[in-house]
Structure formats: structure tokens, C-alpha cells
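Exercise 7b. C-alpha cells:
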């Protein structure tokens, strides 16, 4: 599980809640569900000026973010969830006044693709079942073999947490011998370092 925080100081204008704590914490962009591995902005306001605010995830310390002269901070947060989806609470605890706190809750989903059947001829039609792809509206399969690549549009994702079930022929009947790597993500252009993705390898041999 990977989490990261990085400070980007700057004034943030947010509404101040009427509760006992004057501070506020929010995530941007605001979505109903986030993919594991996705990086978002964690915005704090009305903390103690220049204080280092403790940031926790479900009570576990992630790190500290230093507020600017106005008591605001803008941190980079990479969310993580290994299995299923879960509502996670992120909180900020002021470094000078521990009674000054704020929290926000978001839903985070794991990312994954299953392919069936697992075995068979290269040109077989496969059932693709995907979940957790919230970084776009369309799921793509990038099929890489040696120096060749084919980009396959698998269809529109549905639901808040980016789900899709479809049937596609990912490898052609005359697919070349060797290892074929398939990367699933929400981008039309292939890039191996996408933070939200799942990968399969399929070995093709001639009997």
C-alpha cells in the first residue's frame, strides 16, 4: 500500500464550518469514488499559521503538512485500497493546538481486471470484468508484443467506481509467438507508468 504527501503552500478559500473546530479539510477533485493509486489534492484551511498539521488516514499517521501564513495548505495525497472498496477518513490535527482538527471522508476502490477463460487459442473471445477505474470514462486495453502495440476500446465504464463487463477478442488468431502484455487503463494513448492500471501477460506458443 502506497501513500504520499507533499506540501504546496498556498492560500485556500474554503467555507469555515460552524462547529467547535474552525478548521476544514477537503479533497479535490470531488468525486463519489476514487481509484487506488490515484493522486488528489488535500486542502486544509484555518489551521494555525505556519504550524505543521498531522495528517492521518483512519487514525494512522501519514505525515505532516506545513500551513502558510493564512493557516492553509495544499498537499498531494495518493489513496490506496488493496481489495474491494471502503470509505476512508482523512483527518488533520493542528501542530500547535491539538483540539483544532478537521476531517473528510471519501470512498476508495481497488483496481482490477479479470479475464476468462484463462486458457485457450490466441483468438478466443474473453470475458473482461473490470472495477475501480475512476480516472476516465472509457476502459482501454493496450496489447504489446515485442515492438508492436494495439489499442482496444473496451467500452464505457459505469457506476461511481468505474466498472465494466464485456466480451472482446484481445489477441488475434494469428498472434505472434511469445509474451503478449495487456495493460488496462482509462487512456487512449499507451504509457507504461500509469498510476491506475492493471496488467496481464499471455504466452502464445505453437504446438
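Sequence design result:
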Amino acid at each position: 500500500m502506497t501513500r504520499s504527501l507533499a506540501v504546496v503552500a498556498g492560500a485556500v478559500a474554503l467555507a469555515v464550518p460552524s462547529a467547535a473546530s474552525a478548521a476544514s479539510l477537503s479533497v479535490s477533485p470531488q468525486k463519489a469514488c476514487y481509484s487506488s493509486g490515484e493522486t488528489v489534492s488535500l486542502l486544509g484551511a484555518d489551521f494555525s499559521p505556519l504550524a505543521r498539521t498531522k495528517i492521518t488516514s483512519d487514525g494512522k499517521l501519514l505525515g505532516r503538512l506545513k500551513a502558510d501564513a493564512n493557516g492553509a495548505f495544499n498537499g498531494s495525497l495518493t489513496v490506496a485500497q488493496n481489495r474491494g472498496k471502503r470509505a476512508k477518513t482523512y483527518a488533520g490535527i493542528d501542530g500547535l493546538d491539538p483540539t483544532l482538527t478537521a476531517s473528510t471522508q471519501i470512498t476508495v476502490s481497488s483496481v482490477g481486471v479479470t479475464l476468462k477463460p484463462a486458457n485457450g487459442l490466441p483468438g478466443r473471445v474473453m470475458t473482461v470484468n473490470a472495477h475501480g477505474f475512476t480516472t476516465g470514462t472509457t476502459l482501454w486495453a493496450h496489447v504489446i508484443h515485442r515492438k508492436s502495440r494495439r489499442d482496444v476500446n473496451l467500452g464505457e465504464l459505469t457506476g461511481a467506481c468505474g466498472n465494466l463487463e464485456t466480451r472482446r477478442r484481445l489477441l488475434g488468431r494469428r498472434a505472434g509467438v511469445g509474451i503478449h502484455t495487456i495493460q488496462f487503463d482509462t487512456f487512449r494513448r499507451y504509457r507504461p507508468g500509469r498510476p491506475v492500471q492493471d496488467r496481464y501477460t499471455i504466452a502464445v506458443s505453437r504446438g
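Instructor comment: Residues 55 and 63 are 6 Å apart (CA to CA). The two ends are 41 Å apart (CA to CA).
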